[in-house]
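Q: what sequence does this backbone want?
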């Protein structure tokens, strides 16, 4: 057998071309499916990040103010396109002064604002914490709070946080 002198035909060329075409199409489908899976994974990771970050942030804020009179919830009339907003108020004493940290929704963000207790709360103030679409908090019982958050993808999350110090009650100025 002489392999050096082989007759080349059109069929051989077409077979190699078809094989290369099949390989190229298969590689294209693998890349397209992989990119779709990657896109879905990134979207799910972002959704989970927003949920976990919001839940962890709010839980840690409440835990750091877990003492009698340290946590309160109120509804404040909103400005612009919204009527009423839930506001989480966290109280702390610093050098004989009483400060309040407000956590609220404004301009599509969970915001935080800390001021002296005598300061009139204003929605135009505050630091952006996390982009969300909706935020509400309510006191279920003494020491138990229910949070509802809707992230930017429209996913709703409901979770509860309880105080370990017992009852929280309403803060009364001294």
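A:
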């Amino acid at each position: 057998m002489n392999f050096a002198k082989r007759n080349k035909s059109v069929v051989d060329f077409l077979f190699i071309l078809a094989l290369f075409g099949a390989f190229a199409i298969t590689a294209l489908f693998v890349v397209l499916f992989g990119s779709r899976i990657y896109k879905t994974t990134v979207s799910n990771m972002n959704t989970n990040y927003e949920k976990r970050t919001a839940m962890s942030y709010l839980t840690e804020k409440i835990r750091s103010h877990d003492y009698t009179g340290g946590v309160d919830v109120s509804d404040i009339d909103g400005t612009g396109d919204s009527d009423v907003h839930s506001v989480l108020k966290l109280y702390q004493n610093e050098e004989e002064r009483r400060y309040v940290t407000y956590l609220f929704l404004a301009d599509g963000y969970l915001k935080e604002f800390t001021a002296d207790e005598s300061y009139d709360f204003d929605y135009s103030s505050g630091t952006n914490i996390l982009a969300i679409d909706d935020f509400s908090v309510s006191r279920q019982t003494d020491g138990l709070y229910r949070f509802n958050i809707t992230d930017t993808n429209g996913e709703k999350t409901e979770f509860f946080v309880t105080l370990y110090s017992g009852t929280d009650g309403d803060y009364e100025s001294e």
